[in-house]
C-alpha cells in the first residue's frame, strides 16, 4: 500500500511543478502588482501628495495581495510565535503589515515603472520557489530588491531583501532584542505602539437608527459609507457617540473633527459640509383613522389646521430653517426615541410624528399592535441630502478632510463599494 501511495505522489509531483510553470510567472505577477501601484499613484498624484495614507491604501489594494503577510509575520516573530496567544499573533501580524506598508511607500517614493530594471527569475526546489531581483534608480547607486516567492496555487512573496538585508530576518532580530529582559506581552506592546498608523478622523454621532447607531454593524449605514469613503484615501475613522449638546461642546473644544450626519441647510460659518452621500426623505406618521392629509405640493390641505395637531419631533435635533418654518404652526412635542414617536401616535398621546421614510417603512412593516394602527402620509414632506459636517479650524484642516472624503466617496461609487453597502443594509433604491 505504501509503495502504491509513493508511486501516486511521484506521478503527481510533476503536475504540481507544471502548474506552477504554466501560471503567471513570478516576474509577470510581481510586475503587474507594482505596475498597478505606480500607475494608480501617477493617475492620482494630487491625492497621493496631499493625503499621506493614500499610497498605503493603494499598496494594500494592489501589492499586498501577492504577499503572504501571515507567513512573513510568523517567520519574523520567530520562536515567540509558538507561545503567543491568537490575539497576540493577530496583533503582531497587523503591526507587521503596517511597517511593511510604510516601508514600501518610502521605498517606491518618486519611482516610475520605467526606472525599474528586472533580472531573470532564479528558480529552485523543482521550480516551486523563485527569486526575483530588481534595481531601482541609478544603475550603479540604486536600491537592489530581491523578492522571494513560493508557489501555492499562485506565486506569493514570503520575504524581501533590500540591499541584501532581509525584512523577515531584520524584524526577527529587532524583536528578539526587545525581548531581552522583558515579557512577550511587553515587547509586543512596544512593537505595536511604534507601528505606523493611518491618520485618524474623529466624528461625533448620535443614535439615528438605522443610519447611525453604536449597536449596529459598522455603526449603521451612514457610518459605514463614511468609514469606507475615508478609508479609500487612507484615513481611519473613530466615532464618539454622545448626546448632541455634548458633541457640540466637544466640537468647539476640538475633540471631534465634525459630525457623521448633517443636512444641507445646517451649514454655517463654523462648519464645512462634504458632498452628499445619502438622500433623506421625511414623512408624517398618523393613525389610519385620522383625516390629516397633504396636497400635491406636500402642504397640509385647506381643511387641516396645523395648530390643532400635536406633532412629535426628535429632541435636540436641528431640523434646519426650512423645515422649522414648515412645522412652526404645529404644536411640537419632543421625544428621545423613534419608538416613542410611533407608540405615542398610536396611543393618541400625539396626533402626528415626523420621521425618516426608511425608518417609517421598517417600523410599519413590524407585526406589533402599534404598527397596525399607523400609516404614512404621502407625499413626503421634504427630501434633504445627508453630509459629513466638519468643524472649521485655523489651519484649514476641515477643508483638507472634506477634500479627502469627497475623493473617497467618488472612489467607492465607482468601484461598487457604495452600491454593495446600500444593498447590505437593505436601503431603498435611490
Automatic annotation (TrEMBL):
Keywords: Signal. The keyword Signal applies. It holds the Pfam family MlaC. Gene3D superfamilies: Periplasmic binding protein-like II (3.40.190.10), Tgt2/MlaC (3.10.450.710). Residues 1-20 form the signal peptide. InterPro entries: MlaC/ttg2D, Tgt2/MlaC_sf. This is ABC transporter substrate-binding protein. It comes from Thalassolituus marinus. The lineage of its organism: Bacteria, Pseudomonadati, Pseudomonadota, Gammaproteobacteria, Oceanospirillales.
Amino acid at each position: 500500500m505504501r509503495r502504491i501511495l509513493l508511486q501516486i505522489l511521484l506521478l503527481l509531483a510533476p503536475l504540481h511543478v507544471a502548474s506552477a510553470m504554466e501560471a503567471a510567472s513570478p516576474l509577470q505577477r510581481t510586475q503587474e502588482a507594482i505596475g498597478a501601484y505606480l500607475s494608480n499613484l501617477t493617475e492620482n498624484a494630487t491625492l497621493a501628495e496631499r493625503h499621506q495614507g493614500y499610497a498605503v491604501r493603494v499598496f494594500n489594494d494592489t501589492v499586498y495581495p501577492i504577499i503572504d503577510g501571515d507567513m512573513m509575520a510568523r517567520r519574523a516573530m520567530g520562536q515567540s510565535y509558538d507561545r503567543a496567544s491568537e490575539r497576540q499573533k493577530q496583533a503582531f501580524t497587523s503591526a507587521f503589515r503596517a511597517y511593511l506598508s510604510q516601508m514600501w511607500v518610502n521605498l517606491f517614493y518618486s519611482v516610475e515603472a520605467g526606472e525599474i530594471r528586472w533580472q531573470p527569475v532564479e528558480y529552485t526546489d523543482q521550480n516551486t520557489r523563485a527569486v526575483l531581483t530588481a534595481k531601482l534608480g541609478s544603475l550603479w547607486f540604486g536600491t537592489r530588491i530581491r523578492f522571494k516567492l513560493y508557489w501555492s496555487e499562485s506565486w506569493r512573496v514570503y520575504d524581501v531583501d533590500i540591499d541584501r538585508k532581509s525584512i523577515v530576518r531584520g524584524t526577527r532580530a529587532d524583536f528578539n532584542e526587545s525581548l531581552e529582559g522583558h515579557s512577550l506581552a511587553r515587547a509586543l506592546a512596544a512593537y505595536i505602539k511604534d507601528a505606523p498608523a493611518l491618520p485618524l478622523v474623529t466624528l461625533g454621532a448620535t443614535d439615528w437608527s438605522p443610519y447611525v447607531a453604536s449597536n449596529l454593524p459598522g455603526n449603521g449605514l451612514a457610518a459605514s459609507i463614511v468609514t469606507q469613503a475615508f478609508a479609500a484615501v487612507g484615513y481611519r475613522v473613530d466615532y464618539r457617540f454622545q448626546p448632541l449638546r455634548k458633541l457640540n461642546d466637544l466640537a468647539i473644544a476640538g475633540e471631534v473633527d465634525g459630525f457623521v450626519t448633517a443636512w444641507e441647510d445646517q451649514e454655517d460659518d463654523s462648519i464645512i459640509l462634504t458632498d452628499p452621500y445619502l438622500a433623506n426623505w421625511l414623512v408624517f406618521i398618523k393613525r389610519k383613522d385620522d383625516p390629516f392629509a397633504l396636497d400635491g405640493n406636500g402642504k397640509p390641505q385647506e381643511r387641516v389646521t396645523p395648530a390643532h395637531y400635536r406633532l412629535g419631533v426628535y429632541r435636540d435635533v436641528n431640523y434646519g430653517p426650512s423645515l422649522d418654518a414648515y412645522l412652526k404652526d404645529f404644536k411640537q412635542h419632543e421625544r428621545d426615541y423613534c419608538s416613542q414617536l410611533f407608540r405615542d401616535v398610536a396611543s393618541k398621546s400625539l396626533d402626528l410624528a415626523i420621521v425618516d421614510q426608511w425608518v417609517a417603512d421598517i417600523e410599519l412593516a413590524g407585526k406589533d399592535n402599534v404598527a397596525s394602527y399607523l400609516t404614512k402620509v404621502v407625499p413626503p414632506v421634504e427630501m434633504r441630502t445627508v453630509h459629513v459636517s466638519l468643524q472649521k479650524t485655523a489651519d484649514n484642516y476641515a477643508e483638507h478632510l472634506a477634500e479627502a472624503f469627497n475623493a473617497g466617496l467618488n472612489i467607492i461609487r465607482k468601484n461598487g463599494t457604495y452600491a454593495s453597502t446600500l444593498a447590505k443594509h437593505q436601503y431603498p433604491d435611490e
